[in-house]
Design a protein that fits this description.
Order of helices and strands: HHHHHHHHHHHHH
Number of strands: 0
Structural class: mainly alpha
Number of helices: 13
Shape: globular
Largest sheet: none
Mean pLDDT: 87
Radius of gyration: 19 Å
């Protein structure tokens, strides 16, 4: 915790002053080397970068969720974040100075994550009940606000279905910061997260703060979901949390190897989806998920041998 503030300041400084020239130099070199509009177009450069980062962060967090049989939690948080986006668009229409829908989505998803954790710990109900409540409740809030008639449908659709080809540079910076945060946090807490994933009772006996690490994991999930919304949309975002991890689990029994493989499969899904979307002229977010599913089906065949 004491290192959190300096680390945050270092990440912020990197995003503001170091990353932009590095980003420009990388794509300038790539464009000069490859010399095709697929890597020379600014909107595709931003899309490739943001997609590649989602292909890293989502499987990293998803590896712990899938092995804890919490695959649906990403979908629940995505729907809740969509409700937050609707609130943000509503507020932004009334007060232009507060037109930050992703910030509202982040707050909504984080509150929902903490709420689900609280309900799961402090009630005697089934663990999937809070997930089901958030899954439907968040979407209901979004639909209710949209039906009020203030939110523009085109803007709403971009958050529902994603639009990786029109990601602004500030969102790319957000994704870089998120990737550093998620990767750094997981690297520092991997042992504890692994412990509570596979043997919670032993973790309690070893005096590991299970509640804290449960909460940390679910908050990281909320962050990844919100960051991925504009790329994949609220409807599809959970796919990148689950499908690459499920594919990796078919070809290896090792958690650490599976974690690395899920990131590789995530990159295949992102880049394969973007290229397939260009060739067939269909929605990019949907194509990314379809490529991920194809990778999963192939892994089933390979894993059964």
């Amino acid at each position: 915790m004491a290192a959190g503030v300096p680390a945050g300041l270092a990440i912020t400084a990197f995003l503001l002053w170091v990353f932009p020239p590095l980003y420009g130099a990388f794509w300038d070199t790539t464009c000069t080397t490859v010399d095709t509009w697929l890597v020379c177009s600014g909107f595709l450069q931003r899309g490739f970068t943001a997609g590649a980062l989602i292909g890293v962060t989502a499987p990293i967090v998803g590896a712990y969720l899938v092995n804890r049989q919490m695959a649906l939690i990403g979908e629940a948080l995505a729907h809740t974040a969509f409700g937050g986006v609707a609130i943000g668009l509503f507020v932004g229409a009334a007060v232009p100075g507060l037109d930050y829908p992703l910030l509202f989505a982040l707050v909504a998803a984080t509150v929902a994550a903490l709420g689900m954790q609280y309900i799961a710990v402090h009630t005697d109900g089934y663990a999937d009940i809070p997930i089901a409540i958030m899954l439907t409740g968040g979407f209901a809030v979004g639909i209710a606000i949209i039906s009020y008639g203030v939110v523009f449908s085109a803007t709403v659709e971009s958050y529902l279905f994603g639009d990786i080809l029109f990601v602004p540079f500030r969102n790319v910076q957000l994704m870089v910061g998120l990737t550093l945060l998620v990767a750094g946090t997981v690297a520092l807490t991997h042992k504890q997260l692994l412990f509570i994933t596979f043997d919670r009772e032993a973790a309690r006996l070893a005096r590991v703060d299970v509640w804290f690490y449960d909460t940390l994991l679910i908050v990281l999930t909320a962050l990844v979901v919100v960051a991925a919304m504009q790329i994949l949309g609220a409807i599809l975002v959970a796919g990148m949390l689950v499908i690459p991890v499920a594919a990796a689990m078919q070809v290896t029994d090792s958690f650490n190897r599976g974690l690395l493989l899920s990131v590789v499969f995530g990159q295949v899904a992102v880049f394969g989806g973007i290229f397939a979307s260009y060739l067939w002229n269909i929605a990019t977010g949907a194509t990314i998920i379809l490529v991920a599913i194809a990778v999963y089906l192939l892994s089933l065949v390979v894993g059964s041998r």
